[in-house]
Amino acid sequence: MMNLTQITNGEIDELISLIRHNYGYDFGDYARASFQRRVLRCMDQAGIRSFFDLKYELTNDQTFFNWFLQNLTVNVTEMFRDPMFYKSLRTTIIPILASYPTIKIWHAGCATGEEVLSMAILLQEAGLLERSRLYGTDLNPANLERARQGIVPMQYMKDYTYNYIQSGGKNDFSTYYTARYDHAIFNKELRRNIVFSQHNLVTDQVFNEFQLVCCRNVLIYFNRQLQNQVCRLLTDSLAPLGYLAIGMKESLIFTDVRQQFDVTDSVCRIYRRKT
């Protein structure tokens, strides 16, 4: 990989301005060091050796920008990631959600949709999927297209099955998908009540009211100011007494909204809005 010193802070500012002006995506409040590493990794993968060449490609080649955005915003995801979190949902949260006539859940920053599929399986096993609506949103349209297809590389299924069992799953995990060559295609019935759509946490607004909002391992990519802004948006998206779940290495402690929540599960970072 290229040395970090080969892109200055001024050049990063210039890059952020170019992307905002030409394409409407605003990375200005992303954590600077993480953003810089991702830019350098993209340059390395594309064989681009200078900042001038990067600017040229981004300005003149929409296809390159689409690829750049895909690689810049890709988030690590997996089914039943952090099984303890899903076990907490099974035992603590879902029985309470069952009291609502319609259950609305938002996965913000859903990447390629594995965590949304995991939630659908939890709801199916609780007999609640029919009256649930799951919304998976992401900044990246390529991620969303993959998510809509419900196709997961078969090479991950052994790990996902282990996660599922550790989360308290009782069924044979393979009943939820069909193996086709080197991919697993998840059942249409499981995906029927899922809507995947583009939403930018930086610039877009509240679009519904939810009983549960999951925004896991997304805040770590933002600076303190943007974390505050996004947490306010997530809070405003919750129904009174709704639940917010963030990543197990994230926290509400330094945000403006912390007083609006009671802690439901301190280890799994699940909070309940007070009113």
Automatic annotation (TrEMBL):
Pfam families: CheR (PF01739), CheR_N (PF03705). One of its GO terms (molecular function) is protein-glutamate O-methyltransferase activity. InterPro entries: Bact_Chemotaxis_MeTrfase, CheR_C, CheR_MeTrfase, CheR_N, SAM-dependent_MTases_sf. Coiled coil: none annotated. It comes from the Bacteria. Keywords: Methyltransferase, Transferase. This is Chemotaxis protein methyltransferase CheR. SMART domains: MeTrc. GO terms for biological process: methylation. It is an enzyme of class 2 (transferase). Residues 1-274 form the CheR-type methyltransferase domain. SUPFAM superfamilies: Chemotaxis receptor methyltransferase CheR, N-terminal domain, S-adenosyl-L-methionine-dependent methyltransferases. Its EC number is 2.1.1.80.
